[in-house]
Amino acid sequence: MERWSGKVAVVTGASSGIGWSICKHLLENNMVVIGLAKRLKVMEELREELSKAQMDRFFPRECDLTSLPSLRTAFHWIEQRFAQRMHVLINNAAILEHSKLLDPGNDEALQRVIDVNLMGAIYCTKEAYRLMKKAMAFGEECHMINVNSLLGHVVPEHIPNRGFNLYPVAKHALRATNEVLRREMFEDKLLRISTISPGVTATDMSAKTNEHVENLGESPEIFELLKPEDVAKGILFILGSPAHVTIAELLMVPTGEKY
């Protein structure tokens, strides 16, 4: 990770769970980190938990990934603040809107699932690529990592009662998007693109899913879940691999999870 010291990373969904853990691990490795999330106040409170040196390198910015003006404003600020370039993008933001796909009255919720989990990542990638091209022009290495999900690989039978609706659809599409991008970016020899797909992870989102399942009267399987820091360490593994090695896809699941 030494070669990333002082380089600029952007992490979406940075206000909790996996996103915040990724921010902390990057800061521990001396990177400059911009955290993007809707909950600016939460990120500012989390910033107070950092060491002084890390606080000076963490920049929380409010950003609504369902709004293109909000997203572009955030990246314009990054462009102006950091010499018009950045080096690492971690597309981590994700949401679940619990309902069945065929339930009435959930049209806006379904659209949000696509807007955040798929289109938000795509638009962040487009904005980041524009800044990364400037970094690569100076001979600087860059890396894009999409935080996907086990549900981007399989659709288990219990999905309807979990209320995941279009979440697996968006995550499968995000994997396909990575493959399109890999081909479009093939000539960018200083740019790598990767996906990390965690299984069930102990986050606010999984806690809300368990609450939803319990309301249905189901008994979810009990096993030790992944922790946000497990996923963050996976990110460091991907970033820290030698420049001639691309970890194109990393699937990590709890040992007790069936898939």
Automatic annotation (TrEMBL):
It holds the Pfam family adh_short. SUPFAM superfamilies: NAD(P)-binding Rossmann-fold domains (SSF51735). GO terms for molecular function: oxidoreductase activity, acting on the CH-OH group of donors, NAD or NADP as acceptor. Keywords: Oxidoreductase. The keyword Transit peptide does not apply. Belongs to the short-chain dehydrogenases/reductases (SDR) family. PANTHER family: DEHYDROGENASE/REDUCTASE SDR FAMILY MEMBER 11, DEHYDROGENASE_REDUCTASE SDR FAMILY MEMBER 11. This is Dehydrogenase. It comes from Glossina pallidipes.
